[in-house]
Structures are given as C-alpha cells and as structure tokens.
Task: inverse folding
C-alpha cells in the first residue's frame, strides 16, 4: 500500500491517494516542490525502493540519485505551475542494480480548487523490453535487406554469364534463324540482368524511374545498337518514383517495346530514334515508347502476336493498364496507360493492341 498522511476521508488528497493505492502501474503523487506525498506499491517493486521510505523525500533523492534529472525537474516544475503537461517523455534511467532502463513519463497537475495545494500525479512505464524488441526487429529487417541485395547482385551476375554464353552460341551458329532467336534471347536476359542490378543498388522500396529507365536503355543499346550514329535510344521521364515490384514490370515492358522497335522499325539500315517516355499525375501514369521508323505494317491487326506482345499484354494486365498503339506519321507510338478510375471500375482490365 502507498504511504499516506492522515487525512479526512472525503478530501481531494484522499481521492488522489486512493488512485495511487489502487494502481497496478508505477505512480507517484508529488507536491509543487516535487516532494513525494505517496508512492504506489508497484513503483517500489519496479524501482527497488520502499514506498513508505521515500515519502517526504524529493524526487531527485530516490535511490542513489538516478531520478535527479535536470530536464525532468524543469518539465515537472512547469507542469506544477500549470504551464505544461508531460506527455510521453522518454528518458533513460540507470539504476544501481537494474542497469539502464528506458522509461516513458506522464505527469498531470491535479486541480481541485484554489484553496487546495498543487499536486502532481506522475506515471511511469518501463518500455525497455519493447524498445529492445523494436531494435531486434530493425536489425533483422536490415539484415534481410542486405541479404536481398546480395542475392540480387548474384542473380544479376549469373544472368550476365548466361547472356554471354547465349551470345557466343549465336556467333557460332550457321543458321540465320537460330542466330536471330539467340540474339533476341540474349537481349532479354541482359535486360533482366540490368533490372536486377537496379534493384540491388536501390536501398529503399521506392525506385526513381528516370535514372532507372536511363540505365536500362543504356544496357539495351549497348547490346543491340551496333552503330549509335545510326540509331539513338533516349529517355524523357519526369521525377516519378514507384515501388520495386512495379518498377520491374515497367522495366520489362520497356525492354520488350524497345526490342520490338529495334527489330521492326528500322529495316535495311535505316536510321532513326526511339524515345521512352513516362509521365504521372497522382495515381495515374502513362508509359510510352515511340519511334520514327517505317510505321506499322498494313496487316499488323491480323498478325499473330509474338512473344514480346504477349509479355507486354500480360504485364499491362498485371498493372491494371491498357495498351494503345498509334501511327504517328513516320513511326509508331505505343502507350501503356494506367487510369485509377478505369482500374477501379474493372480491376481485371485487359490490355489490347500490339507491342
């Protein structure tokens, strides 16, 4: 039980004492000079002191003086004066036998009437275990992120080795059809390797798309554009960012659309340019790949979709986006459009068009 002076049972102080007595949480009742009027049994148990023995002592005198904290004293004095109230003030307390503990302090001034002395009710919560648990969780998450980055680096390196083997096979084959297929496969593997490298260097969940697309397009150009003076590949993107999963899907779409343009838009050594664009407005965004090549063939609508087209359509459906293909004078514009309203109205929105 909390120590208490003799009082009239109906007085305000008796009510405060009853609160202290009945509390299972560590409580102190202080006067305006920060002298202890009463301490709950739970306070004595939590901080290894005799509740009766600390009555009429100042807060700073508890234990070996570990409660003598200037900042806490200033806050309590301001609370007693009615100028403040302590809300979840966190501090470290170093006891003689219990080591360093993390505490959360709350304090309230008890106002009954002008004739009553000022009282402070101080509550203490030991959050040491909770903070240690949070630190362990943060350490595990940090370790997981490091391991994931290492895995992504290893995957990217393995993909580049596979791409090199494929390219060597393409150079050795005598079949033009096989060579084209292997070269196509090499480009796809290299683009996926580039995506993995991007993810491995991204420390946060958000991926900035402009530098992401720039690095991806440089990788594609290095493996597929043999004469940069004839064909150019550039990026025009705003400062949008998205999470890693979405960025992978967008990167794969860009890869397929750029490969498609390089394969079909510039036959016979024709020169030209391919531009990858990205613009967003709130939750809505548009990804574009345009070229100034020969344009779509007249029988494009009746042509059997290839692997690239199937990949782009599947990824667009996954992103709840639609595909729009347009002829723009001399060239083609492919847009992948995400509209929040359309996605809400039809979550399984399918993509249409050709890649």
Result:
């Amino acid at each position: 039980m909390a120590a208490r002076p003799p009082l009239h049972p109906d007085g305000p102080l008796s009510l405060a004492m009853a609160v202290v007595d009945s509390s299972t949480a560590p409580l102190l009742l202080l006067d305006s000079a920060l002298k202890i009027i009463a301490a709950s049994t739970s306070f004595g148990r939590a901080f290894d002191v005799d509740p009766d023995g600390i009555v009429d002592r100042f807060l700073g005198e508890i234990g070996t003086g570990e409660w003598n904290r200037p900042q806490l004293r200033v806050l309590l004095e301001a609370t007693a004066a009615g100028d403040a109230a302590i809300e979840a003030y966190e501090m470290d307390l170093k006891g003689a036998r219990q080591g360093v503990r993390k505490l959360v302090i709350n304090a309230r001034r008890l106002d009954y009437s002008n004739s009553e002395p000022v009282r402070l009710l101080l509550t203490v919560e030991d959050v040491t275990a909770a903070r240690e648990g949070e630190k362990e969780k943060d350490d595990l998450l940090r370790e997981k992120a490091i391991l994931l980055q290492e895995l992504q680096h290893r995957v990217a390196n393995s993909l580049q080795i596979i791409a090199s083997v494929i390219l060597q096979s393409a150079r050795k084959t005598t079949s033009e059809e096989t060579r084209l297929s292997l070269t196509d496969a090499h480009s796809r593997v290299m683009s996926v390797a580039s995506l993995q490298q991007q993810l491995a260097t991204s420390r946060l969940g958000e991926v900035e798309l402009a530098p992401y697309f720039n690095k991806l397009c440089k990788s594609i150009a290095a493996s597929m554009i043999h004469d940069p003076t004839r064909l150019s590949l550039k990026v025009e993107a705003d400062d949008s960012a998205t999470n890693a999963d979405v960025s992978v899907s967008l990167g794969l779409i860009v890869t397929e659309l750029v490969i498609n343009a390089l394969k079909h838009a510039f036959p016979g050594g024709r020169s030209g340019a391919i531009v990858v664009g990205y613009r967003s407005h709130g939750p809505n965004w548009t990804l574009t790949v345009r070229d100034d090549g020969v344009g779509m063939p007249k029988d494009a609508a009746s042509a059997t979709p290839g692997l690239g087209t199937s990949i782009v359509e599947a990824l667009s459906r996954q992103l709840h986006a639609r595909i729009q293909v347009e002829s723009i004078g001399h060239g083609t514009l492919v847009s992948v459009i995400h509209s929040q309203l359309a996605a809400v109205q039809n979550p399984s929105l399918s993509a249409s068009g050709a890649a």
User: Anything to note?
Assistant: The longest strand covers residues 99-110.
